Amino acid sequence: MIQHGVRPSRTLAILECGKSAATGLGIFNAAKALNINVVALDKPGHWISKPEFASWREAFISIDRNLDDGLADRIIAAIEKYDGHIDGIISFFDPLLPATAAAAARLGLPGAPASALEIATDKHKTSEFDGRPAYRISSLEEAISIIGLKDSNLFYPLIVKPCSGWGSEGVFRVETEAELIRAVESIDFERHGTSFVIENYCDGPEVDANFVLCDGELLFFEASDDFPKDADLAGNDDGKGTLQTFIEVANVLPSSLPEDELELLKTSLHQSLLRLGFTSGFFHLEARVQGSRAEYVKGKDGLIDLQAKQTPSPRNPFAWLIEINARPPGLQASWASRATYGVDFWGLALSFALDDKTTARVLAAPFKSNNQYWCQIVFIPVQKGGVFESGDACQDLVERRPELAANISRSLCFFKRGDRVPEPSSGILTWIAYYLVFSRKSRRDLLEVADLVRGETQFVIS
Questions:
Q1: Coil, helix or strand for 154?
Q2: pLDDT tens digits for 121-140?
Q3: What domains appear along the chain, each with residue ranges and CATH number?
Q4: Predicted TM-score (pTM) of this structure
Protein backbone atom coordinates (compact mmCIF):
# COMPACT_ATOMS: atom_id res chain seq x y z
CA MET A 1 0.00 0.00 0.00
CA ILE A 2 1.10 3.54 -0.70
CA GLN A 3 -0.53 4.89 2.44
CA HIS A 4 -3.10 3.93 5.03
CA GLY A 5 -6.71 5.09 4.74
CA VAL A 6 -8.20 7.03 1.84
CA ARG A 7 -5.82 8.86 -0.47
CA PRO A 8 -6.39 12.61 -0.63
CA SER A 9 -8.29 13.63 -3.74
CA ARG A 10 -6.41 15.53 -6.47
CA THR A 11 -7.68 16.98 -9.74
CA LEU A 12 -5.88 16.54 -13.05
CA ALA A 13 -6.74 17.93 -16.48
CA ILE A 14 -6.17 15.45 -19.33
CA LEU A 15 -5.86 16.86 -22.85
CA GLU A 16 -6.92 14.27 -25.46
CA CYS A 17 -8.46 11.22 -23.84
CA GLY A 18 -7.91 8.57 -26.48
CA LYS A 19 -9.71 7.37 -29.58
CA SER A 20 -12.19 5.22 -27.68
CA ALA A 21 -13.15 4.00 -24.24
CA ALA A 22 -11.06 0.87 -24.86
CA THR A 23 -7.93 2.92 -25.54
CA GLY A 24 -8.55 5.26 -22.60
CA LEU A 25 -9.44 2.55 -20.08
CA GLY A 26 -5.96 2.20 -18.55
CA ILE A 27 -5.64 5.94 -17.94
CA PHE A 28 -9.01 6.29 -16.25
CA ASN A 29 -8.60 3.08 -14.23
CA ALA A 30 -5.31 4.43 -12.88
CA ALA A 31 -6.91 7.78 -12.06
CA LYS A 32 -9.70 6.09 -10.13
CA ALA A 33 -7.27 3.88 -8.19
CA LEU A 34 -5.19 6.92 -7.22
CA ASN A 35 -8.27 9.00 -6.28
CA ILE A 36 -7.58 11.49 -9.06
CA ASN A 37 -10.50 13.49 -10.39
CA VAL A 38 -10.24 13.99 -14.14
CA VAL A 39 -11.19 17.15 -16.00
CA ALA A 40 -11.30 15.97 -19.61
CA LEU A 41 -10.28 18.44 -22.30
CA ASP A 42 -11.13 17.27 -25.79
CA LYS A 43 -12.93 18.12 -28.99
CA PRO A 44 -16.73 18.58 -28.95
CA GLY A 45 -18.64 15.30 -29.15
CA HIS A 46 -15.69 13.20 -27.97
CA TRP A 47 -16.67 9.84 -26.43
CA ILE A 48 -15.61 10.97 -22.94
CA SER A 49 -18.28 13.71 -23.11
CA LYS A 50 -21.10 11.15 -23.46
CA PRO A 51 -23.44 10.58 -20.49
CA GLU A 52 -22.45 6.91 -20.15
CA PHE A 53 -18.91 7.99 -19.24
CA ALA A 54 -19.87 10.70 -16.77
CA SER A 55 -18.57 8.58 -13.87
CA TRP A 56 -15.11 8.50 -15.48
CA ARG A 57 -14.63 12.26 -15.20
CA GLU A 58 -15.25 15.18 -12.91
CA ALA A 59 -15.99 17.49 -15.83
CA PHE A 60 -15.71 17.74 -19.61
CA ILE A 61 -14.57 20.94 -21.31
CA SER A 62 -14.52 21.14 -25.09
CA ILE A 63 -11.42 22.58 -26.73
CA ASP A 64 -10.01 23.18 -30.19
CA ARG A 65 -6.97 20.84 -30.28
CA ASN A 66 -5.57 22.11 -33.58
CA LEU A 67 -1.79 22.35 -33.52
CA ASP A 68 -1.16 26.06 -33.90
CA ASP A 69 0.49 28.87 -31.94
CA GLY A 70 -2.70 29.53 -29.99
CA LEU A 71 -3.08 26.03 -28.51
CA ALA A 72 -1.42 26.83 -25.17
CA ASP A 73 -3.71 29.87 -24.80
CA ARG A 74 -6.76 27.72 -25.48
CA ILE A 75 -5.63 25.12 -22.92
CA ILE A 76 -5.34 27.84 -20.28
CA ALA A 77 -8.71 29.30 -21.24
CA ALA A 78 -10.34 25.85 -20.98
CA ILE A 79 -8.84 25.22 -17.54
CA GLU A 80 -10.00 28.62 -16.34
CA LYS A 81 -13.56 27.60 -17.24
CA TYR A 82 -13.44 24.85 -14.61
CA ASP A 83 -15.14 25.86 -11.39
CA GLY A 84 -12.60 24.31 -9.07
CA HIS A 85 -8.91 23.83 -8.36
CA ILE A 86 -6.71 21.92 -10.81
CA ASP A 87 -3.45 20.39 -9.54
CA GLY A 88 -1.89 19.41 -12.86
CA ILE A 89 -2.30 18.89 -16.58
CA ILE A 90 -1.15 16.07 -18.84
CA SER A 91 -1.46 14.78 -22.39
CA PHE A 92 -0.55 11.40 -23.83
CA PHE A 93 -0.39 12.50 -27.50
CA ASP A 94 3.07 13.62 -28.64
CA PRO A 95 2.11 16.59 -30.85
CA LEU A 96 0.19 18.11 -27.91
CA LEU A 97 3.02 17.80 -25.37
CA PRO A 98 4.90 21.08 -26.02
CA ALA A 99 1.76 23.21 -25.76
CA THR A 100 0.64 21.27 -22.68
CA ALA A 101 4.00 21.92 -21.00
CA ALA A 102 3.89 25.60 -21.96
CA ALA A 103 0.40 25.96 -20.49
CA ALA A 104 1.47 24.16 -17.29
CA ALA A 105 4.44 26.50 -16.87
CA ARG A 106 2.29 29.58 -17.29
CA LEU A 107 -0.22 28.23 -14.77
CA GLY A 108 2.49 27.30 -12.27
CA LEU A 109 1.70 23.59 -12.56
CA PRO A 110 4.19 20.67 -12.69
CA GLY A 111 5.54 19.74 -16.10
CA ALA A 112 8.54 18.78 -18.21
CA PRO A 113 10.71 21.53 -19.74
CA ALA A 114 9.04 22.78 -22.92
CA SER A 115 12.51 23.12 -24.50
CA ALA A 116 13.16 19.38 -24.03
CA LEU A 117 9.77 18.49 -25.47
CA GLU A 118 10.38 20.65 -28.54
CA ILE A 119 13.29 18.34 -29.38
CA ALA A 120 11.69 15.07 -28.28
CA THR A 121 8.57 15.63 -30.42
CA ASP A 122 10.57 16.52 -33.54
CA LYS A 123 12.22 13.57 -35.29
CA HIS A 124 14.81 15.77 -37.02
CA LYS A 125 15.82 17.56 -33.83
CA THR A 126 16.03 14.22 -32.01
CA SER A 127 18.41 12.77 -34.61
CA GLU A 128 20.55 15.91 -34.54
CA PHE A 129 20.59 15.74 -30.76
CA ASP A 130 21.87 12.15 -31.01
CA GLY A 131 24.78 13.42 -33.11
CA ARG A 132 24.23 11.75 -36.46
CA PRO A 133 23.70 13.12 -39.98
CA ALA A 134 20.05 14.06 -40.44
CA TYR A 135 18.42 16.59 -42.74
CA ARG A 136 15.12 18.44 -42.50
CA ILE A 137 13.66 18.39 -46.00
CA SER A 138 10.72 20.27 -47.49
CA SER A 139 10.64 18.93 -51.06
CA LEU A 140 11.60 15.93 -53.15
CA GLU A 141 14.00 18.05 -55.20
CA GLU A 142 15.81 19.14 -52.04
CA ALA A 143 16.06 15.52 -50.86
CA ILE A 144 17.65 14.33 -54.11
CA SER A 145 20.05 17.29 -54.07
CA ILE A 146 21.25 16.70 -50.49
CA ILE A 147 21.73 12.97 -50.94
CA GLY A 148 23.90 13.73 -53.94
CA LEU A 149 26.30 15.90 -51.96
CA LYS A 150 29.62 14.20 -51.20
CA ASP A 151 29.79 15.64 -47.69
CA SER A 152 26.19 14.79 -46.73
CA ASN A 153 27.36 11.52 -45.09
CA LEU A 154 24.15 9.89 -46.28
CA PHE A 155 24.35 6.43 -47.82
CA TYR A 156 21.64 4.06 -49.03
CA PRO A 157 19.72 2.47 -47.44
CA LEU A 158 18.13 5.56 -45.93
CA ILE A 159 15.20 6.30 -43.65
CA VAL A 160 12.55 8.81 -44.72
CA LYS A 161 10.04 9.94 -42.09
CA PRO A 162 7.90 12.96 -41.16
CA CYS A 163 9.41 15.34 -38.59
CA SER A 164 6.23 15.22 -36.52
CA GLY A 165 4.83 11.83 -37.42
CA TRP A 166 3.39 9.10 -35.21
CA GLY A 167 2.40 5.45 -35.39
CA SER A 168 5.12 4.61 -37.97
CA GLU A 169 3.06 6.44 -40.60
CA GLY A 170 5.12 7.82 -43.46
CA VAL A 171 8.27 5.99 -42.33
CA PHE A 172 10.07 4.16 -45.13
CA ARG A 173 13.39 2.48 -45.83
CA VAL A 174 14.66 3.33 -49.31
CA GLU A 175 17.56 1.87 -51.26
CA THR A 176 17.35 3.78 -54.54
CA GLU A 177 16.31 7.18 -55.83
CA ALA A 178 13.21 5.60 -57.36
CA GLU A 179 12.18 4.31 -53.92
CA LEU A 180 12.96 7.70 -52.41
CA ILE A 181 10.55 9.33 -54.85
CA ARG A 182 7.80 6.83 -54.00
CA ALA A 183 8.43 7.29 -50.28
CA VAL A 184 8.14 11.07 -50.35
CA GLU A 185 5.04 10.87 -52.52
CA SER A 186 3.49 8.46 -49.98
CA ILE A 187 3.80 10.77 -46.95
CA ASP A 188 0.52 12.39 -45.89
CA PHE A 189 1.77 15.94 -45.39
CA GLU A 190 -1.66 17.22 -44.36
CA ARG A 191 -1.67 14.70 -41.53
CA HIS A 192 1.99 14.94 -40.43
CA GLY A 193 3.19 18.41 -41.42
CA THR A 194 5.17 19.69 -44.38
CA SER A 195 8.73 18.65 -43.48
CA PHE A 196 10.41 15.26 -43.32
CA VAL A 197 13.73 13.77 -42.25
CA ILE A 198 16.28 11.83 -44.23
CA GLU A 199 18.94 9.92 -42.33
CA ASN A 200 20.92 6.71 -42.50
CA TYR A 201 19.29 3.37 -41.69
CA CYS A 202 20.54 1.38 -38.71
CA ASP A 203 20.27 -2.39 -39.22
CA GLY A 204 20.83 -3.35 -35.57
CA PRO A 205 18.10 -5.02 -33.49
CA GLU A 206 15.46 -2.58 -32.23
CA VAL A 207 14.10 -2.25 -28.71
CA ASP A 208 11.36 -0.37 -26.95
CA ALA A 209 12.89 0.96 -23.74
CA ASN A 210 10.88 2.38 -20.85
CA PHE A 211 12.41 4.62 -18.19
CA VAL A 212 11.10 6.05 -14.93
CA LEU A 213 13.19 8.94 -13.60
CA CYS A 214 12.78 10.80 -10.32
CA ASP A 215 15.06 13.79 -9.73
CA GLY A 216 17.50 12.26 -12.21
CA GLU A 217 17.57 8.86 -10.49
CA LEU A 218 16.64 5.86 -12.60
CA LEU A 219 13.86 4.04 -10.74
CA PHE A 220 12.81 1.54 -13.39
CA PHE A 221 14.09 0.34 -16.76
CA GLU A 222 12.89 -2.38 -19.07
CA ALA A 223 13.58 -3.19 -22.70
CA SER A 224 11.60 -5.37 -25.06
CA ASP A 225 12.56 -6.75 -28.46
CA ASP A 226 10.77 -5.02 -31.32
CA PHE A 227 10.82 -7.75 -33.95
CA PRO A 228 11.71 -6.93 -37.57
CA LYS A 229 9.00 -5.15 -39.53
CA ASP A 230 8.20 -5.72 -43.18
CA ALA A 231 10.56 -2.90 -44.21
CA ASP A 232 13.43 -4.48 -42.22
CA LEU A 233 12.90 -7.87 -43.80
CA ALA A 234 12.08 -6.84 -47.35
CA GLY A 235 14.72 -4.17 -47.59
CA ASN A 236 12.78 -2.41 -50.34
CA ASP A 237 9.41 -2.95 -51.96
CA ASP A 238 7.11 -5.90 -52.46
CA GLY A 239 7.82 -6.25 -56.17
CA LYS A 240 4.60 -4.42 -57.04
CA GLY A 241 5.92 -0.91 -56.56
CA THR A 242 4.57 -0.64 -53.00
CA LEU A 243 7.04 0.27 -50.28
CA GLN A 244 6.99 -1.84 -47.15
CA THR A 245 6.25 -0.14 -43.81
CA PHE A 246 7.53 -0.11 -40.24
CA ILE A 247 4.21 -0.89 -38.55
CA GLU A 248 4.85 -3.17 -35.57
CA VAL A 249 4.18 -6.89 -35.88
CA ALA A 250 5.59 -8.39 -32.65
CA ASN A 251 7.18 -7.22 -29.43
CA VAL A 252 8.67 -9.61 -26.85
CA LEU A 253 9.26 -8.85 -23.17
CA PRO A 254 11.88 -9.00 -21.73
CA SER A 255 14.60 -8.47 -24.33
CA SER A 256 17.08 -11.26 -24.97
CA LEU A 257 19.89 -9.00 -26.16
CA PRO A 258 23.27 -9.67 -24.48
CA GLU A 259 23.35 -8.29 -20.94
CA ASP A 260 26.17 -5.86 -21.68
CA GLU A 261 24.20 -4.42 -24.61
CA LEU A 262 21.13 -3.95 -22.41
CA GLU A 263 23.35 -2.20 -19.89
CA LEU A 264 24.70 -0.05 -22.71
CA LEU A 265 21.17 0.92 -23.73
CA LYS A 266 20.17 1.69 -20.15
CA THR A 267 23.19 3.88 -19.46
CA SER A 268 23.33 5.65 -22.82
CA LEU A 269 19.62 6.41 -23.10
CA HIS A 270 19.40 7.50 -19.45
CA GLN A 271 22.17 10.01 -20.10
CA SER A 272 20.40 11.20 -23.25
CA LEU A 273 17.30 12.00 -21.21
CA LEU A 274 19.34 13.92 -18.64
CA ARG A 275 21.27 15.87 -21.30
CA LEU A 276 17.98 16.85 -22.88
CA GLY A 277 16.76 18.27 -19.57
CA PHE A 278 14.37 15.55 -18.40
CA THR A 279 14.85 14.67 -14.72
CA SER A 280 11.50 13.26 -13.57
CA GLY A 281 8.75 11.43 -15.40
CA PHE A 282 7.92 8.44 -17.56
CA PHE A 283 9.73 8.06 -20.88
CA HIS A 284 9.21 5.61 -23.71
CA LEU A 285 12.19 5.43 -26.07
CA GLU A 286 12.84 3.54 -29.27
CA ALA A 287 16.40 2.62 -30.13
CA ARG A 288 18.60 0.13 -31.94
CA VAL A 289 21.97 -1.41 -31.12
CA GLN A 290 24.36 -0.71 -33.94
CA GLY A 291 27.07 -3.37 -34.08
CA SER A 292 25.14 -5.76 -31.87
CA ARG A 293 26.46 -9.29 -31.37
CA ALA A 294 22.91 -10.55 -31.95
CA GLU A 295 20.75 -10.70 -35.05
CA TYR A 296 17.35 -12.05 -36.06
CA VAL A 297 17.45 -15.46 -37.70
CA LYS A 298 14.62 -17.58 -39.08
CA GLY A 299 14.84 -21.14 -37.82
CA LYS A 300 13.97 -24.30 -39.71
CA ASP A 301 10.51 -24.18 -38.13
CA GLY A 302 9.94 -20.71 -39.59
CA LEU A 303 10.13 -18.86 -36.28
CA ILE A 304 12.28 -15.73 -36.08
CA ASP A 305 14.27 -14.83 -32.97
CA LEU A 306 17.50 -13.23 -31.84
CA GLN A 307 20.62 -15.39 -32.05
CA ALA A 308 24.33 -14.75 -31.68
CA LYS A 309 25.92 -13.64 -34.93
CA GLN A 310 28.12 -16.17 -36.67
CA THR A 311 30.56 -13.37 -37.46
CA PRO A 312 30.66 -10.70 -34.72
CA SER A 313 30.76 -7.06 -35.76
CA PRO A 314 34.29 -5.58 -35.82
CA ARG A 315 32.94 -2.41 -34.17
CA ASN A 316 31.94 -1.97 -30.55
CA PRO A 317 28.15 -1.76 -30.17
CA PHE A 318 26.52 1.57 -29.46
CA ALA A 319 22.99 2.84 -28.84
CA TRP A 320 21.23 4.41 -31.83
CA LEU A 321 18.43 6.59 -30.48
CA ILE A 322 15.36 6.65 -32.76
CA GLU A 323 12.85 8.63 -30.76
CA ILE A 324 11.95 9.90 -27.30
CA ASN A 325 8.36 9.90 -26.11
CA ALA A 326 7.74 11.72 -22.83
CA ARG A 327 4.72 9.55 -22.06
CA PRO A 328 3.84 5.86 -21.72
CA PRO A 329 3.79 3.67 -24.85
CA GLY A 330 0.56 2.69 -26.59
CA LEU A 331 -2.11 0.71 -24.81
CA GLN A 332 -0.79 -2.68 -26.01
CA ALA A 333 2.70 -2.15 -24.62
CA SER A 334 1.47 -0.47 -21.44
CA TRP A 335 -0.85 -3.36 -20.65
CA ALA A 336 1.92 -5.85 -21.52
CA SER A 337 4.45 -4.27 -19.15
CA ARG A 338 1.82 -3.91 -16.43
CA ALA A 339 1.15 -7.65 -16.59
CA THR A 340 4.77 -8.70 -17.06
CA TYR A 341 6.48 -6.45 -14.49
CA GLY A 342 3.62 -5.25 -12.28
CA VAL A 343 4.37 -1.61 -13.09
CA ASP A 344 1.46 0.64 -14.09
CA PHE A 345 2.80 3.17 -16.59
CA TRP A 346 -0.37 5.25 -16.62
CA GLY A 347 -0.39 5.59 -12.85
CA LEU A 348 3.22 6.74 -12.97
CA ALA A 349 2.52 9.36 -15.62
CA LEU A 350 -0.47 10.72 -13.68
CA SER A 351 1.57 10.84 -10.46
CA PHE A 352 4.39 12.81 -12.08
CA ALA A 353 1.87 15.24 -13.60
CA LEU A 354 0.81 16.01 -10.01
CA ASP A 355 4.43 16.13 -8.80
CA ASP A 356 3.56 13.21 -6.49
CA LYS A 357 7.00 11.63 -6.41
CA THR A 358 6.29 9.57 -3.30
CA THR A 359 3.57 7.67 -5.14
CA ALA A 360 5.71 7.42 -8.26
CA ARG A 361 8.55 5.77 -6.34
CA VAL A 362 6.17 3.12 -5.01
CA LEU A 363 4.52 2.48 -8.37
CA ALA A 364 7.91 2.07 -10.07
CA ALA A 365 8.77 -1.09 -8.09
CA PRO A 366 8.42 -4.26 -10.23
CA PHE A 367 7.73 -7.78 -9.06
CA LYS A 368 10.39 -9.32 -6.83
CA SER A 369 11.36 -11.53 -9.77
CA ASN A 370 11.25 -8.46 -12.08
CA ASN A 371 9.23 -10.18 -14.84
CA GLN A 372 6.77 -12.89 -13.89
CA TYR A 373 6.78 -14.49 -17.34
CA TRP A 374 7.65 -13.98 -21.01
CA CYS A 375 5.14 -11.96 -23.00
CA GLN A 376 4.60 -11.19 -26.66
CA ILE A 377 2.42 -8.46 -28.09
CA VAL A 378 1.00 -10.06 -31.22
CA PHE A 379 -0.03 -7.31 -33.62
CA ILE A 380 -2.35 -8.14 -36.52
CA PRO A 381 -1.67 -5.32 -39.02
CA VAL A 382 -4.16 -4.17 -41.62
CA GLN A 383 -3.03 -5.55 -44.99
CA LYS A 384 -5.78 -4.06 -47.13
CA GLY A 385 -8.62 -1.60 -46.79
CA GLY A 386 -12.34 -2.16 -47.20
CA VAL A 387 -15.33 -3.07 -45.08
CA PHE A 388 -14.82 -5.27 -42.02
CA GLU A 389 -17.22 -8.18 -42.48
CA SER A 390 -16.44 -10.16 -39.30
CA GLY A 391 -17.35 -10.00 -35.66
CA ASP A 392 -14.80 -9.76 -32.84
CA ALA A 393 -11.79 -11.59 -34.30
CA CYS A 394 -10.21 -12.08 -30.87
CA GLN A 395 -13.32 -13.53 -29.31
CA ASP A 396 -13.74 -15.80 -32.32
CA LEU A 397 -10.24 -17.24 -31.78
CA VAL A 398 -10.83 -17.74 -28.05
CA GLU A 399 -14.02 -19.70 -28.77
CA ARG A 400 -12.48 -21.81 -31.54
CA ARG A 401 -9.16 -22.48 -29.81
CA PRO A 402 -9.69 -22.51 -26.03
CA GLU A 403 -6.29 -24.16 -25.51
CA LEU A 404 -4.67 -21.00 -26.95
CA ALA A 405 -6.91 -18.76 -24.85
CA ALA A 406 -5.19 -20.11 -21.73
CA ASN A 407 -2.06 -18.19 -22.80
CA ILE A 408 -3.80 -14.92 -23.73
CA SER A 409 -4.02 -12.38 -20.92
CA ARG A 410 -5.62 -9.58 -22.94
CA SER A 411 -6.81 -8.85 -26.47
CA LEU A 412 -8.72 -6.25 -28.44
CA CYS A 413 -10.26 -6.19 -31.90
CA PHE A 414 -10.23 -2.61 -33.17
CA PHE A 415 -13.01 -3.04 -35.74
CA LYS A 416 -16.66 -4.02 -35.64
CA ARG A 417 -18.75 -5.52 -38.40
CA GLY A 418 -19.47 -2.86 -41.00
CA ASP A 419 -16.56 -0.57 -40.03
CA ARG A 420 -14.46 0.97 -42.78
CA VAL A 421 -10.85 -0.30 -42.64
CA PRO A 422 -8.32 2.25 -43.97
CA GLU A 423 -6.19 1.26 -46.93
CA PRO A 424 -2.50 1.17 -45.87
CA SER A 425 -1.49 2.86 -49.12
CA SER A 426 -3.48 5.90 -47.93
CA GLY A 427 -0.76 6.49 -45.35
CA ILE A 428 -2.92 5.52 -42.36
CA LEU A 429 -1.44 2.49 -40.59
CA THR A 430 -3.31 0.51 -37.97
CA TRP A 431 -4.04 -3.00 -36.72
CA ILE A 432 -7.03 -5.27 -36.92
CA ALA A 433 -6.34 -6.56 -33.41
CA TYR A 434 -3.70 -7.35 -30.83
CA TYR A 435 -3.14 -10.08 -28.24
CA LEU A 436 -0.97 -10.29 -25.16
CA VAL A 437 0.35 -13.85 -25.20
CA PHE A 438 2.39 -15.18 -22.29
CA SER A 439 4.35 -18.24 -21.27
CA ARG A 440 5.74 -19.28 -17.90
CA LYS A 441 7.80 -22.03 -19.56
CA SER A 442 10.28 -20.29 -21.84
CA ARG A 443 10.76 -17.66 -24.50
CA ARG A 444 10.76 -20.40 -27.11
CA ASP A 445 7.40 -21.69 -25.91
CA LEU A 446 6.07 -18.14 -26.04
CA LEU A 447 7.11 -17.73 -29.68
CA GLU A 448 5.46 -21.01 -30.64
CA VAL A 449 2.15 -20.16 -28.97
CA ALA A 450 2.17 -16.61 -30.35
CA ASP A 451 2.75 -17.94 -33.87
CA LEU A 452 -0.31 -20.17 -33.51
CA VAL A 453 -2.41 -17.25 -32.26
CA ARG A 454 -1.37 -15.16 -35.26
CA GLY A 455 -2.07 -17.97 -37.70
CA GLU A 456 -5.47 -18.78 -36.18
CA THR A 457 -6.79 -15.20 -36.28
CA GLN A 458 -9.51 -15.06 -38.92
CA PHE A 459 -11.49 -12.14 -40.37
CA VAL A 460 -12.87 -10.91 -43.67
CA ILE A 461 -12.42 -7.50 -45.31
CA SER A 462 -14.38 -6.91 -48.50
A1: coil
A2: 999 999 999 999 999 999 99
A3: 10-111 (3.40.50.20), 130-200 (3.30.1490.20), 204-372 (3.30.470.20), 374-462 (3.90.1170)
A4: 0.94
